[in-house]
């Protein structure tokens, strides 16, 4: 099977192979359907399917497999791949649906006039140039904990795929010329996949947001490479992605069920920010996906039959449209519906997404795939001319035709108006920026005279300092001048109320602050003599509490300071774990107290669209809650 890779020019009068005419493998369409369902559930109900993000990795594997298979079939026929034709076909497949989503979704944003999506101009630029992933990295957008995710955040994966489509035919031709045989080519691609996965694993740091690794073309490209390696392996064995031998072999029958179950299990258990996901988990998932695809060339197995079910295939054929439409429509529904109606927003989004994807496939994507841009646009022009004629004549159906023509004119106009009006920052980002500026102007102050007595006394190792009697605590009468507060963007959003409710308080709060950074900062303040008698920690929104962190904090601040732990409130899967650990810490130490923001937040009505950051009334509740707790110490 070490056949040389042909790069010879096509023979005279050779019949040009058209990959678009090749028969489809129904099982692969079903696999696409599973992938898009996983992504949709992951975004609609994040806590229900924590590993649903892996659906994108399954798309990458399928894309690498099918694209490379098509290129190899051309070289196997003795022809240099038609790169121009390849790129034209990719444009036909990808551009129409994306342009429709960009225009219509942007126009629909008028429904949320009070919360127009921010940064739409750079998002459009990233979409049209297929650099959305790099744009989002440059703007510091987090895929996992963004306050208000970009309206077209999901286009990052299309950018990665399109960059692959642009570069891979050239890279594959170079590797084929350099390595000569299919066996060497297979190993060369596997080396690329391993290097990509290793770069993600090496770059992962549990104390930082992994979004740059997740968005990166190289660090997240191993799925595409593994799919390409699968295509080369299939070509070496003499089969193609579209061939269908009469019966699958025994190894395929025995392996398909456990592999499919393993993929489904990964959707259920692999967290999107866990070390396991980045340090091999996503790569192993892609390996399993590749091997499963290789076994799906032949019908006659249980898994092949399951994946070929009508409705899964329907979803798979429209998976591109489903993926394109689901995110902006979900963001729009989240902005229109109040925070208390989050479930209703999702339930209303689902039929809209399915309908939009079906219409897009029927009237835009499929016609252009079949007939090309020129012929399809000519057909649309003829239809428009006929509709205009009906309206002029006042014929039957002219009212409906007039409404359709009006929509065709108004939707792009509305999209342009929203695009021009889109602010550079969202209202929440502006609010937080103003709060950050106000905190930066705080007068630096040292602890008051006599506060050094609050510092921890030095004890012998292994001995505990005797706790102060209850009577001593009851006579302290703490004020804002006794408080040092460290917090994340929730505290930052409420900082103006904290300064009002607790005059003299020192606040250090920032977007994306993590609780595991608190020990180092508290130690710095302690060494500088700037740590006050009461320490407030409003952290936990952006990640779980690592083991031992609260114990380290308690040791750093010493036994004579009061520690206030603010519970977290956010629609994120780690919040319950964070709050359980905070409550356990408060119950185990009499100088550690709980400020139950999570309990009070359920009564707050004016949250930002992300349902995390309080508005003016919520900030007042936050400030009063903390002030009351300090007064009761």
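^ Assign residues to that structure.
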């Amino acid at each position: 099977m070490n056949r040389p890779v042909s790069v010879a020019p096509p023979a005279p009068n050779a019949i040009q192979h058209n990959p678009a005419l090749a028969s489809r493998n129904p099982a692969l369409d079903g696999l696409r359907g599973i992938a898009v369902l996983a992504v949709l559930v992951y975004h609609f109900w994040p806590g229900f399917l924590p590993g649903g993000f892996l659906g994108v990795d399954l798309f990458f594997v399928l894309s690498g497999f099918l694209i490379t298979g098509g290129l190899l079939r051309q070289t196997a026929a003795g022809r240099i791949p038609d790169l121009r034709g390849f790129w034209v076909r990719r444009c036909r497949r990808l551009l129409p649906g994306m342009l429709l989503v960009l225009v219509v979704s942007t126009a629909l944003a008028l429904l949320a006039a009070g919360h127009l999506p921010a940064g739409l101009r750079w998002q459009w630029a990233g979409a049209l140039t297929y650099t959305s992933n790099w744009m989002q990295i440059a703007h510091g957008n987090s895929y996992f904990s963004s306050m208000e995710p970009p309206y077209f955040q999901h286009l990052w994966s299309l950018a990665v795929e399109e960059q692959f489509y642009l570069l891979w035919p050239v890279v594959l031709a170079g590797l084929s010329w350099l390595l000569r045989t299919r066996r060497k080519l297979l190993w060369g691609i596997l080396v690329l996949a391993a290097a990509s996965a290793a770069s993600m694993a090496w770059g992962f740091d549990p104390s930082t947001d992994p979004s740059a690794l997740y968005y990166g073309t190289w660090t997240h490209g191993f799925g595409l490479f593994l799919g390409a390696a699968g295509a080369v392996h299939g070509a070496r064995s003499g089969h193609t992605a579209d061939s269908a031998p009469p019966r699958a072999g025994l190894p395929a029958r025995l392996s398909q069920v456990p592999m499919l179950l393993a993929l489904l299990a990964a959707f259920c258990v692999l967290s999107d920010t866990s070390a396991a996901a980045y340090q091999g988990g996503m790569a192993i998932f892609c390996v399993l996906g590749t091997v499963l695809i290789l076994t799906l060339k032949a019908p006659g197995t249980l898994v092949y039959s399951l994946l070929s079910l009508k409705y899964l295939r329907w979803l798979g054929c429209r998976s591109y449209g489903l993926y394109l439409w689901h995110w902006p429509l979900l963001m729009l529904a989240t902005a229109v519906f109040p925070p208390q109606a989050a479930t209703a927003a999702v339930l209303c989004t689902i039929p809209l997404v399915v309908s939009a994807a079906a219409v897009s496939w029927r009237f835009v994507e499929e016609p252009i795939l079949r007939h090309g841009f020129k012929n399809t646009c000519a057909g649309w022009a003829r239809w428009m001319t006929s509709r205009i004629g009906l309206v002029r004549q006042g014929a039957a159906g002219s009212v409906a035709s007039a409404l359709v023509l009006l929509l065709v004119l108004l939707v792009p106009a509305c999209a342009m108006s929203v695009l021009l009006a889109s602010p550079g920052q969202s209202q929440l980002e502006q609010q937080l920026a103003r709060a950050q500026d106000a905190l930066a102007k705080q007068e630096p102050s040292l602890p008051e005279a006599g506060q050094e007595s609050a510092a921890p006394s030095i004890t012998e190792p292994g001995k505990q300092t005797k706790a102060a009697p209850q009577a001593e605590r009851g006579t302290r009468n703490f004020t804002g001048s006794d408080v040092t507060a460290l917090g994340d963007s929730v505290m930052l959003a409420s900082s103006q109320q904290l300064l009002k409710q607790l005059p003299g308080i020192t606040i250090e709060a920032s977007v994306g602050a993590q609780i595991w950074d608190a020990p180092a900062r508290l130690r710095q303040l302690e060494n500088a003599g700037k740590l006050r008698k009461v320490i407030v920690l409003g952290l936990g929104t952006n990640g779980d509490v690592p083991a031992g962190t609260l114990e380290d904090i308690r040791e750093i601040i010493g036994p004579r300071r009061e520690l206030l732990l603010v519970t977290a409130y956010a629609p994120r899967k780690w919040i319950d774990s964070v709050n359980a650990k905070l409550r356990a810490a408060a119950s185990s130490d009499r100088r550690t107290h709980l400020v139950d923001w999570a309990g009070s937040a359920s009564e707050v009505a004016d949250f930002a669209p992300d349902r995390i950051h309080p508005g003016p009334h919520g900030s007042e509740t936050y400030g009063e809650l903390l002030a009351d707790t300090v007064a009761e110490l």
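The radius of gyration is 29 Å.
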